[in-house]
Amino acid sequence: xxxxxxxxxxxxxxxxxxxxxxxxxxxxxxxxxxxxxxxxxxxxxxxxxxxxxxxxxxxxxxxxxxxxxxxxxxxxxxxxxxxxxxxxxxxxxxxxxxxxxxxxxxxxxxxxxxxxxxxxxxxxxxxxxxxxxxxxxxxxxxxxxxxxxxxxxxxxxxxxxxxxxxxxxxxxxxxxxxxxxxxxxxxxxxxxxxxxxxxxxxxxxxxxxxxxxxxxxxxxxxxxxxxxxxxxxxxxxxxxxxxxxxxxxxxxxxxxxxxxxxxxxxxxxxxxxxxxxxxxxx
Length: 282
Ligand code: C2E
Ligand code: MG
Ligand code: MG
Ligand code: MG
Prior knowledge:
Blueprint: H1 2-37, E1 41-49, E2 54-65, E3 71-72, H2 78-84, H3 87-109, E4 114-118, H4 121-124, H5 129-140, E5 147-152, H6 153-158, H7 160-173, E6 176-182, H8 189-194, E7 199-202, H9 204-208, H10 214-229, E8 233-236, H11 242-250, E9 255-256, H12 267-275
Parallel strand pairs: 2-4, 4-5, 5-6, 6-7, 7-8, 8-9
Antiparallel strand pairs: 1-2, 1-9, 2-3
One magnesium ion binds at residues 59, 118, 150, 180.
């Protein structure tokens, strides 16, 4: 009967809801578990001085190895980690792990790379964020002037007064701030004028359309010009082919990152690929 069918549908519906809720809950629980068991890994992608081809930095990118051998990329779990607040302890681990890894490289190769670490707005807005950064620097012995915290445009411009104070304090510490995915949100140029930002990371969306698209070229060029006027460095993100690199170089863009220059790889591979040729400096 219609009534029975209705009931059936209803039960089906609530089962679906429960399943959805469980899956959500279990992702949160699995994130907690992963954090406690030390399951997370960091991969590192080289950042390159475009004119010389020299690797001058590394961006740490979070990976979550799964039981089936696959690596879960951050887009699949960071939104949930942000919703649940778990991004705060996860991000704390990321910063400590990346600084520790860098110190190992430094000891083995005497490298002087910059280290870029992504920071979510949920971490950034914690009252003790700055203290935690200081603590990690102190405990690991990491040189502050080598650290760059990457924060998205929207996050940095969300709470302008806080961002102003925090970027100033980081800058006092010697730590750089990179505006990630630049051009993707609507930049508040007035805020940008007031903030201490050391790097603008021009979003991949613009790089992809280079060199053919005149409008993408105009925007890329304006970002490079703007950055240099603010004493910041532009990093072109997501460079996949030589033509894109050439276009950026012609615009005076100093730095780049992308599959064409090197994919994100585990630390051992980063060392082999990008640090082995490095001559120890005295
Ligand atoms: P992002 O910070 O903008 O990082 C750049 C992303 O672009 C990375 O994706 C990288 O693998 C990818 N990429 C680099 N070069 C190319 C290229 O040439 N072509 C293409 N198609 N992609 C390229 P990934 O590793 O999946 O990370 C995605 C986002 O997740 C990051 O974007 C960042 O917003 C976030 N994320 C990653 N690690 C962390 C972390 O430790 N903490 C926080 N809060 N967020 C993180
Ligand atoms: Mg980034
Ligand atoms: Mg980016
Ligand atoms: Mg991004």
